Amino acid sequence: MNQYDYVVIGAGSAGCVVANRLTEDGETTVLLLEAGNPPTKPEIQVPVFWPKLLGTEVDWAYWTEEEPYLNKRKVFCARGKVLGGCSSINATIYIRGNRHDFDSWQALGNPGWSYEDVLPYFLKSQNQQRGASPFHAVGGLLNVSDIIDPNEISHRFVEVAATMGYDRNPDFNGAQQEGAGLYQLTVKDGQRHSTAAAFLIPFLDRSNLTVQTGALVTQLLFEGTRTVGVEYLHEGTLHQVRVSKEAILSAGAFDSPKLLMLSGIGNAEKLRSLDIPVLVNLPGVGQNLQDHICVTVAYRATKNLQPALTSNIAEAGLFLHTESNLDAVPDLQLFFSPVLWVPSGYPQDGPGFAGTACLTHSQSRGNVTLRSADPKDSPAIRMNYLQSESDVQKLVTGIKIIRQLLDSQGFDEFRGEEVAPGADVSSDEALQTYIREVATTIWHPVGTCKMGTDPDAVVDSELRVHGVEGLRVVDASIMPTITTGNTNAPTIMIGEKAADLIKSAGRV
């Protein structure tokens, strides 16, 4: 049986980073296992084509269970099944989150995770094309750039927001997050710069790095409570490898808890009901599921607004507070798109533009559980979107703010009829009905292996799984609370910080 110092499970936004950093030491051997395949699909490289990737062979294409507060709809959940994971199929937006997000993580009992602690790890990854500054760095492996050819109407969105009293914000990752501006992207030379492109593919010639694609991990192997190996399925055959130091689980907010539960780590009663031997009773595994939910207002356009190939579609944005007693963290994030981005069931032909309101911190919580003890079964995902009435009210407010912006004089030369929800949908009651009919995810699930010291925590502040040795979780599932904005950049940061934690432990 082959043996490695470390086995990293999942070559996604965090896993590629960890595998790279651990193999910087030529004496350290790493096996990186990925269920998907190399990113050979041409559309991956073209930023504007990311919607074409959803539901294809590079997407796990999960669905939630029937959502009780969304009229029992099942919601589509895209997850990258390819080297680079979600960073290979997402909209490439680079948002770190709000400084208060990380300070709150530390306040929850996670020393070392304050904003001042994690900022160096954001900087470590980054090659900021604008140049170095107190909030940005150059020379890192991940390219962060402005949109190369933003649409004229995206510029107009920022101008209109400014005339309506919102701050102009050229840098959502700078001194403040609030305000309107164009998003920065993980794009290099006009092409997507996923973590596979940045951290993995240029380093495949390292003799101490082994990458196995098409490998579905079925369980972790233990001697007592010590992690000693990994079992995976490849081309119909089961394989086992031994790990001498640590296994690192980077399979994401759905599949990391799934694999823990398949390996006997989770709610003991539920595991026994599936005849899975219990290794550690850790009831928080799969709980605390959080996501960003959104709703869109779309208009036909009176002129062609074809976005460039280098566009990420969601070109401009606005972070804002909806309440007068301003909290430290914006509660809405708006996305503006120069396309007719509409919910299913609405007209999708012809030019258009759209504003999308996204809750940054939903009050609702969901969970991930096993359907069976078969590793090939998808996890059962229950988001409980809009469980909280306050979430619905904030989305109603979001629709009203989008309409104030897009119905303003600044958009007169572009604006045709409102397609979704339609100008006749105007009362709060009608808007709430629309929201429950069409609201959907923006694909940012986190929190299912949360970091902390409370009874529902799954990992400690060094990301070690409670109750076992030689096992860490390193991905968005460890977030105790979701970050304010797109989750890819903080997931990369988690990979960077974890790599240093792992290296430090390995030197002891």
Describe this structure in words.
The protein is an alpha/beta fold and 508 residues long. The protein is built from eleven helices and 25 strands. The chain has helices at residues 15-22, 50-53, 99-107, 115-125, 152-163, 195-200, 252-262, 268-273, 389-406, 428-438, 488-507; strands at residues 3-9, 30-33, 62-63, 76-77, 126-128, 142-146, 179-182, 184-185, 187-188, 191-192, 209-212, 215-223, 226-234, 237-249, 265-266, 280-281, 293-301, 316-320, 332-337, 352-359, 367-369, 380-382, 415-420, 440-441, 471-473. Strands 1, 2, 11, 12, 13, 14 and 25 form a seven-stranded mixed beta sheet that branches. Strands 7, 17, 18, 19, 20, 23 and 24 form a seven-stranded antiparallel beta sheet that branches. A hairpin with a 2-residue loop joins β13 and β14 (237-249).
Mean pLDDT: 97
| Secondary-structure class | alpha/beta
Q: Please tally the β strands and state the result.
A: 25
> Beta fraction of the residues?
15-25%
Q: What is the first-to-last residue Cα distance?
A: 26 Å
Coarse morphology? globular
Biggest pleated-sheet summary = 7 strands, mixed
Helix content: 10-25%
* Rg measurement, Å: 22 Å
What's the helix count?
11
Instruction: Name the poorly predicted regions.
Output: none
Q: Concise description?
A:
The protein has 508 residues and is α/β, with parallel strands linked by helices. The chain has eleven helices and 25 strands.
